Amino acid sequence: MLARPVHRCVALAVVLAAGCGFDTRPVGGPADDSHPVPGGRWPPTTADRWPSFAQSLRYDGCVAYDGIGVRTSIQTPVVSSVQSVSVLDGRGAPFIVINPSVASLPEEVRSFLYHHECAHHHLQHPALREAGRFVDPVLAEYDANCSAGVRLVSTGAFSRQDVDFLLLVLENNSGPDRPPGQAGALVECLRARGLY
């Protein structure tokens, strides 16, 4: 049984239905340092990427497939309804953009979104797209969900209750730009590894 009220999950589904879809257009930075971020620097520095309202959010530790650390910025992506996106910046470095609206979501959802985007980099999705290789968007989402779920559960960051809450959110997060059956696929992934 979930400890969280169902109405909260439905509200989250509405919020998530607006984003975390397949928009993979890079936010990219220009070759010079004229990108319009706070402080006017590209890529954003630590001071630029942590607005005061988001000081309690901690997004770090992500490493791409090639061992390069993935920077994270809290800013509105190209498509403002997208909650989070994994891209390569204007110089080809791995980058995660977290929409400031994510700060209002429960910690479980914020953590999953971050680990999901990190998984895209670890699985090479943005790099392969940038190289002109086809990356099936549905399989990429399932793979990123699986990788994020495995990491969160296997490290003890997510309890069974957290996973159940996330599954309810994923079940209610359907739409034309999100693959169907995300919750079932995540359960299958976790069960295959003895984590659910």
Provide keyphrases for this structure.
196 residues; mainly alpha; 3-stranded mixed sheet; 7 helices; 7% strand; disordered N terminus
What is the topology?
Elements: H1 6-17, H2 46-49, E1 71-74, E2 84-88, E3 94-98, H3 107-122, H4 125-130, H5 137-154, H6 160-171, H7 182-192
Parallel strand pairs: 1-3
Antiparallel strand pairs: 2-3
Radius of gyration: 16 Å
- Overall helicity: 40-55%
Strand content: 5-15%
How many helices? The count is: 7
- Biggest sheet layout: 3 strands, mixed
The helix/strand series, from N terminus to C terminus, equals HHEEEHHHHH
Spatial shape: globular
Number of strands: 3
Low-confidence stretches: 1-57
- Average pLDDT: 74
Biggest sheet: strand arrangement: 1-3-2
Distance between the termini: 15 Å
- Structural class, judged by helices and strands? mainly alpha
